[in-house]
């Protein structure tokens, strides 16, 4: 038996062929600038937990009370809990597959590596790669948009008749994103993502306290918890609500996050997931339950909109809105930086030279140019399409669900080949099938919502 030492730093004492695993020895980290420079394997499980939290817990959680208006109390709590359990299970399966392949001598550092090695050539380039790019670039578009809306709201508090438009604030956030995009590696975001974790918990508690305060105040709106609309509206609303919650839990970059772990990787991702889901339990349920309790089926697409009365009167002190929006702005900038990393890795792989130093002129110039042009394009789209949230829900149906709910089950079953007589085989198969149905129905519901909202669309709208 031979001894193989791999670039990940892990040592294996049994040859891959003896274990019956056909390894596809393709580009090693030393030959791939993206792996070598962007996906450095230097982090601890704490750092992994920070990255995971920032990739999942974002401003989309402000839409959770609205999802309850489509699902009611029972459906909302049930699906919020079930989606949490399924995604935790799914991400843990994905981690187990990655650990298994690492132990066999092939540490997969990208989602598309997993697709190529497990499903075969073509799946990486023509399916998983494009879906992940769609998710990441879509999130980078959404970052400056959400941040710009927070900045504009703060501006409007002090200058209600001010001349500045939404697209100008989006450009400001685009410049911040442009600066953050130059951070060289995923691992270099660890301190920013720790701050993001703290901010997400803080503003979630702020919003929960605000909802409870308004719910008990004399300005509390009448609360009704019945589903609104016709039978068709209610049916599509249920699937729309399911898609919103599924998207809230989605990541799409689990392998890239696990790639930041220093070897040996065994067990570290599970600890990171436990840290992440502890934060999720606090933030998701605090906002969803308190927001829906306070405003019932009048909960808006963003719960913060309910903190302002129909007469445009603030139901909470001005400082509350300033601090909350600043925290959201900072946290969404961190989240955008996380989703920049897979595209940064792709650019580095394409334009970088792994034989030269990371900070050599040969690599710095194409790095700055490619990342800057990418952020500039995303910011332009965000300014042009301030209704991008509707489009993002469509991305969620067709991209997030396959990567986070379907492929992990397929990867596990193909890698470990559990017997068809075992429970895990049928649980995985059931989740994959149900999720595939949700892709179709959720996509139809998202397209329907885009058509219904189309009358409000126009480029560079000041929404």
From TrEMBL:
InterPro entries: AA_transpt_TM (IPR013057)
Keyword Transmembrane helix: yes
Cellular-component GO terms for this entry: endomembrane system; plasma membrane
Signal sequence, start to end: none
Major localization listed first in the record, in broad terms: membrane
Transmembrane segment boundaries: 50-71, 77-98, 126-146, 166-183, 195-215, 235-254, 275-295, 319-340, 368-388, 394-416, 423-447
Gene Ontology terms for molecular function: symporter activity
GO BP: amino acid transport; auxin-activated signaling pathway
UniProt entry keywords in alphabetical sequence: Amino-acid transport, Auxin signaling pathway, Cell membrane, Membrane, Symport, Transmembrane, Transmembrane helix, Transport
Subcellular location: Cell membrane; Endomembrane system
Family: Belongs to the amino acid/polyamine transporter 2 family. Amino acid/auxin permease (AAAP) (TC 2.A.18.1) subfamily.
UniProt function note: Carrier protein involved in proton-driven auxin influx. Mediates the formation of auxin gradient from developing leaves (site of auxin biosynthesis) to tips by contributing to the loading of auxin in vascular tissues and facilitating acropetal (base to tip) auxin transport within inner tissues of the root apex, and basipetal (tip to base) auxin transport within outer tissues of the root apex. May be involved in lateral roots and nodules formation.
Protein name per the record: Amino acid transporter transmembrane domain-containing protein
Source lineage: Eukaryota, Viridiplantae, Streptophyta, Embryophyta, Tracheophyta
